[in-house]
Amino acid sequence: MSQFAATEYNLLCVASGDKFEDSGWLLDYAGCSSPSLIRAIYAKKQLELDNSQQGLYKFRDWLPMRRMLKCDAAPITYRSEALAGELGLENLYITFNGYFPERGANMKTCSFKETEAYSVCARMDEKCDKILVVASAGNTARAFAKVCSDNNIPLLLAVPEDNLNALWFTEPLNDCVKLISCCKGGDYFDAIHLSNLALKSPMFYAEGGAKNIARRDGMATTVLSAVTSIGRIPDYYFQAVGSGTGAIAAWEANMRLIEDGRYGNNLMKLMVSQNVPFLPMYDAWKADSRALLPYDDNQARKDAETIDAKVLSNRKPPYSLAGGLYDALKATNGDVLKVDNAAAAKAAELFLQSEGIDIHPAASVALASLIAEVEAGNIDPKATIMLNITGGGEKRATEGKELWYLKPSLVFNLDPNEAEVVSKVEKLFQ
């Protein structure tokens, strides 16, 4: 760990417009009367890449960093030839997050969730004596587990038991990482509920999800990678969404890049996609509703089991609040698309054949939505398009290796007792 000056920034409440200082780990603004995200307003208005740093910390000007961790992971962007040729697109740029050594991509967990983990952990105060809590459907947990294990940062993960196959590693983790699960039949929302019960204990503090500026600004490095590689802000941004946090982050990065002044002044059209039949944001958007529509819990769990892209199964996404996905879509004249499992699988095969690497189901959903828009004639073939491949290279990264799986220390039912959860999780770290 090297010493460096912390990034200079203030915070902005999107709903009220109030600006204020970050007292340490703020996730919202106490002076706001309505639900709202807060944003970082960085002192440096023009992004200077710090090429002395490896990984995504080269974007440190626009990351809320208090410390530096060892990091060799970053999104990489390249101009597609083979896939672009298949789709008849002249300016298709792929931002790849995963393991693709031929392209210089070195995310060992094969997911863009590493951008979140490295940024969030860099925002943490080294002197903090509380334990970080992260709820996840899989990929986020894998990324945080690796980063916290490598840097000896105590971590409590909450992941549905049905998603534990996502918690693979190429080597055993540091004992500072602990896992609890909601039992079979539970989904991401159940894991969030379980983590919220654990947070009743003063031993723990919440990572914060979409509310954490470090999570969003870490994810925003995908856009920083694309724009600094392309030399301009793209016309379209394609990504599959579970919470929509990555797309919100893309919008926020876009606004910073316009203020930078060197990359154009257009807002990328956010084209986000969900996996049929799990469509809470698609349904709300098509109804032009800021509020999510009613979604029966049992039906939602059933739909989450049906989709191949399990990480896209967030029942309570940051869609409606000020600065959330609804606002991002409205501001960019974006759209929410839907893709079924069959179309996503076909897209994954096309990417493998054309670009030479396997991609995750969520990334396949994003590509399938791009294919559908091209086939429908909705995309100008000359448009500059950023395709955010949020995970890939897992087969390449794990080939021939013996994998180690993180197992839960505790498994709770879907309606756990608060006192029991608190008592048991506290003992895990005593």
Number of domains: 2
**Helix vs. strand class:** alpha/beta
Please bin the fraction of helical residues.
25-40%
Which topology of the largest domain does CATH recognise? Rossmann fold
- Radius of gyration (CA) equals 20 Å
Strand order of the largest sheet: 4-5-16-13-14-15
Overall number of strands = 18
**Major β-sheet, in short?**
6 strands, mixed
Which overall shape is indicated by the principal axes computed on the Cα atoms? Answer: globular
Based on the coordinates given, report the CATH architecture of the largest domain.
3-Layer(aba) Sandwich
Features:
five-stranded parallel β-sheet, Rossmann fold, 33% helix, 2 domains, 430 residues, alpha/beta, six-stranded mixed β-sheet
Description:
With 430 residues, the chain is an alpha/beta fold. The protein has two domains: 76-109 and 214-397, Rossmann fold (3-Layer(aba) Sandwich); 131-202 and 401-430, Rossmann fold (3-Layer(aba) Sandwich), CATH 3.40.50. The chain is 33% helix and 18% strand. The strands form five sheets. It has a six-stranded mixed sheet with strand order 4-5-16-13-14-15, with helices on both faces. Strands 12-8-9-11-18 form a five-stranded parallel sheet, with helices on both faces. The longest helix has 16 residues, at 245-260. The two termini are 27 Å apart. The relative contact order is 0.16. The mean pLDDT is 95.
